[in-house]
Structure formats: structure tokens, C-alpha cells
Predict the 3D structure of the following.
Amino acid sequence: MADLPLAMLAELTHRCPLMCPYCSNPQELTAREAELTTQQWADVFRQAATLGVLQLHLSGGEPASRRDLLDLVIAAREAGLYTNLITSGIGLTEARLEALDKAGLDHIQLSVQGVNADIADRIGGYKGGFDRKMHVAEHIARFGFPLTLNAVMHRDNIDDLPATIAMAERLGARRIEIACVQFQGWALANRARLQPTRAQVERAKAVVRDAIHNTAGWLVIDFVPPDYYSDFPKACMSGWGTTGLNVTPDGTVLPCHAAQTIPHLSFESVKDWPLAEIWHDSAAFNAYRGTDWLPPLCQSCDRRDVDFGGCRCQAMAILGDASAPDPVCRKTPGRAVLDTLLTEETGQDAAYIYRRP
């Protein structure tokens, strides 16, 4: 029997006013008419709570693009779930925030694309987006929502990391997630443009170390360094099908946000299967669960129960084989492929391929 999931990411919609080139949404975006209805989402929330989920992350796209966002928060709270809204802030007015506060929304995670309008609006592809975001942040503080700032870092903004941390302090955030871009979805199409240099990454690590010391006790700093410059992979999603699940706008249930890039897997929908059956019994969720599936090189490794072979989607993206060891690992032949890719791509000045419907 699989462990029970603790968290669920509900991708309410792929609609979004921003066009960030690092977006993790698939390049084939789900149309509005294919999205789950309010009632269907409410049923999914009840099923998730029964299954054991405690935390619900309401995401997108931009979840505020859904007119029924308030109703969805109410349904999630009625199901007994802790609710976290992951948002760009665009579409959240003072009145909507007040209503969400009264409905019991627990937490807001606000994305930032840069530390000023020039870079933020260029990366997000939305003129005036930074100023609107800062205005929304003022309302978030006034209503007293616990705030996490989510800063996706890449070659064009990673050198602004000290100013990004200072922004979190200024906005009254309790936590900042400094997440170096992970190359799936639209980010994969922009990998050569977004990939930071090794020197940039080392400087960023030093900045984070100092900031963790200097802000201890009042600002939590979570740092996700670039996978490609690591010597060993992380335990992606804490292990496939162990602690969390994603539901896409059309109801497809995934063990991680990029799992649909693995072509030989077929994923079930909440329209056809109960959520608990998908979690426990579906072939896709059991495909890479645990360690029995690992290749011999990983089976004999002392990190087998630490990283569980690493990221399946990363192995697919770089090696074309989701069952191979994560190519980040220095102990595997795939590392040479990744090192060659880094040499060839890092520093290229290609134009952004913006996320578009």
C-alpha cells in the first residue's frame, strides 16, 4: 500500500495574463472549455481530504483567471484543507482579496519575475505587471495574509538575488522560495537562454548562505539550486507517488507537474476514476514508485533510498529514457551527456520563446 499524499497541486486553469518563458505549464495548454467545473473541483477537494491530503495549493496558469475562485476556496475550506493560493497577483483586486480573506484562505504565494518594472515586465511579457503586483502585495499585507514570495531565478535575474531577498523583507513576506528554473514545459524550450553560468550559481549560493544567517528567526529562505550543476540528484517530489499529486485543469491526475512528458505512461482522470484509486492502483503512479524499478547501477548505490534515482522527467528530457538514472548523477554515464549540453548551451543569447495560448 502506498503512503498517503500530504499535498495536492490543483492547476485550476492554464489561462494567465503573463507569458513567462520559464513557465512549467505544458506547451500544449488546456483550453478554458476543457477545465473542470466548480462542482467537479469541489468533489476533487473532498476526495483529496478523504485520501489524506492536508495542504491544497491552488495554482495555474493564474488561478485568479477563474471567476469562481472564491467558490473554490470555500469548497476547499469546507473539505478541511489548508489553502495556499499561488498567484502572479494579476486579477486580484482589493475586493477579491477581502472576500478570500473572509472565506478563510490561509496563505498566498506571490510570484515575482524581477526586482523592478524593467526586468519583471520584460520577463513576464506584461507591461505594467510589476507595478500591479506591488499594489496587490500592499493589499495582501493589509489583510494580514501570510505571504511567501516565489522568485524563479535564471541567467537574466539571478545576479539580482540580494535585491530580491530585500524585496521579500520590504513586502513583509514570512518566507521566500528562491527556485532556480527547472527545465520542463516552456522553460525547456528556453533552456539555452535561461541557463545560468556556474559562476552565477556559486555566487547565488554564497548570497543565500549569508541571507539565511542574517534573517534567521523572521524570514524563512528555501533555496532550490539548479539541478544541472549538482553532483547528485534530489529526491524529486520526495519520491514518485509518495507525498503529493497534481490535478491538471481538465482533471488528469499526475505524480508531478511534468509527468505527461513521459510518452509511455497513460494518466487517469478524476472524471473517470476516484482519486484514491488513481493514487493507489493506477499503472502510472506505480510505474516509478519505490525502488524496485531502479536499474542495477542505482540498486547498488548508497544513495538509492536518498534520491530514488532522481527525476524521471529530467531523465526523459535529457536522455530520452525515463527509466534511466537522473543524468545529474556523477556516478552515471548520463552525466557526460548533461555536461556536453551545458557546454553547448550556456551563454547563448537566443530570444525568449514566450508562453502563449
